[in-house]
Amino acid sequence: MTSETITGITILGATGTIGNNTLDVLSRHPDRYRVIALTANSDVDRLYSLCLEHRPQYAVMADAAAAVRLEQKLGTGADIRVLSGVQGLCEVASLSEVDYVMAAIVGAAGLMPTLEAARSGKRVLLANKEALVMSGSLFMQTVEENNAVLLPIDSEHNAVLQCMPARYSTGTMPAGVRRIMLTASGGPFRNTPTEELARVTPEQACAHPNWVMGRKISVDSATMMNKGLEIIEAGWLFGLPLDKISVILHPQSIIHSMVEYDDGSVLAQMGAPDMRIPIAHALAWPERRVHSGAESLDLLAVQHLDFQEPDVVRFPCLELAREAMRSGGTAPAILNAANEIAVQSFLDGILPFSGIPDLIEEVLNTCPVNQADSLDTILEDDRKARSTAGRYMTNSPSRAVR
Ligand code: NAD
Ligand code: MG
């Protein structure tokens, strides 16, 4: 700890939705937390205004030219060190004055700094699920070897953690657990006729019914690849095999997930769909004394809690993710890389929504899977999957949006 009472925090991905929610919770507790470092990709204006508001000691822009612009804008008076690139991100994830690292960069770009936080023995608040999906075994080993504390921010995994036996710590197989049930809203296209899915737009895909999120995870929610990634994430976090992780559609997003025990009890965690709740939980853990700012849950206003079986024909990404988990090794990294290319292509208007699972399946069928025992192999297979996906896009004009 930086002092007896003040906890130092780095926020990787401070300008994003999770970064924003984290800063909102922290600003309610200036006596307990000190923001040491804020990072962003390339949005200079946004990081500049966050710097003025939260006065970190460090600001990092992943983009080197953006870092130069931020430094000029801040001038010398601000007394904020500006760093850049992956090296800068890794540096602020491992500073001695930092106790907690909020890992909230989107996608594979978050892997290196998040892993660095684990290597430095920090409390890692993990929103960046892609990092764990890509490097599962290596990541969990790094956490264990360096006595880091890994706490999930993803609302489902945070809910599962809250429903686990007392003194449970992530990475171990929980005693007496029959299965966990991850809830899923089903996204904006839960009831859209499947023949219309080829024509849906990025704006429609990003209009999530219950949550306000970044564009990538919004599209992942619409294809349900988000839930697929979350199945893999849950496997690593809770040491559970695939047959103990089920998915249930729950359109209201009030129950955030459940744990069923051998004695037949089912524990559920409920709350308003507000990411400040899991963020406050992970900040306070193992205590519960951080106010999040979230509204009280009004069950009388909610009235109904509905449940449905997910439609595997409408959402083929769910099975693709399960298949990658069964294959093991670098298959989840390949799945993740193909998904990132497919989602970006959809957002750029060059791949129809219904082409996302097709592209991922082709890449999974093409790229050889290796043992995921070194970071180099994982990054190499990530690169190969991206170039394979890119090749398929250019070689199959029939795939393109018409
Ligand atoms: P976002 O798009 O709103 O923000 C992403 C952040 O990452 C931004 O600060 C951006 O500057 C930074 N970033 C992007 N590319 C980068 C790069 N190449 N190098 C360095 N930084 C980069 O995303 P979000 O919705 O806040 O999601 C962040 C992560 O949290 C994702 O992994 C997502 O799956 C996970 N998550 C989000 C939510 C949610 O409610 N938003 C819920 C659960 C999990
Ligand atoms: Mg989630």
Question: What string gives the helices and strands in order?
Answer: EHEHEHEHEHEHEHEHHHEEEHHHHHH
Number of domains: 2
CATH class of the largest domain: Mainly Alpha
CATH architecture of the largest domain: Orthogonal Bundle
Largest sheet, order of strands side by side?
4-3-2-1-5-6-7
| Number of alpha- plus pi-helical segments | 16
The Rg value, from CA coordinates, equals: 21 Å
Shape: globular
CATH homologous superfamily grouping of the largest domain: RNA polymerase sigma factor, region 2, helix turn helix motif
Number of DSSP strands?
11
Backbone structural class: alpha/beta
How is the CATH topology of the largest domain named?
Rna Polymerase Sigma Factor, Chain: A
Task: From the structure above, extract its key features.
402 residues, alpha/beta, Rossmann fold, Rna Polymerase Sigma Factor, Chain: A, 2 domains, seven-stranded parallel β-sheet, four-stranded mixed β-sheet, 16 helices, 11 strands, 15% strand, globular, binds nicotinamide-adenine-dinucleotide, binds magnesium ion
How is this structure best described in words?
With 402 residues, the protein is an alpha/beta fold. The chain folds into two domains: 7-152, Rossmann fold (3-Layer(aba) Sandwich), CATH 3.40.50.720; 171-273 and 296-395, RNA polymerase sigma factor, region 2, helix turn helix motif (Rna Polymerase Sigma Factor, Chain: A, Orthogonal Bundle). Helix content is 45%, strand content 15%. The chain has 16 helices and eleven strands. It has helices at residues 17-27, 44-54, 64-74, 85-93, 111-119, 129-145, 155-163, 202-205, 215-223, 225-238, 276-284, 299-302, 316-327, 331-347, 355-366, 375-395, and strands spanning 7-12, 33-40, 58-61, 81-84, 100-103, 123-126, 149-152, 177-184, 245-249, 255-261, 266-270. It has a seven-stranded parallel beta sheet, with helices on both faces. β10 (255-261) and β11 form a beta hairpin. The longest helix is centred in the C-terminal third of the chain and has 21 residues, at 375-395. The model has no long low-confidence stretch (mean pLDDT 96). The structure holds nicotinamide-adenine-dinucleotide (NAD) and magnesium ion. Magnesium ion is lined by residues 154-156, 230.
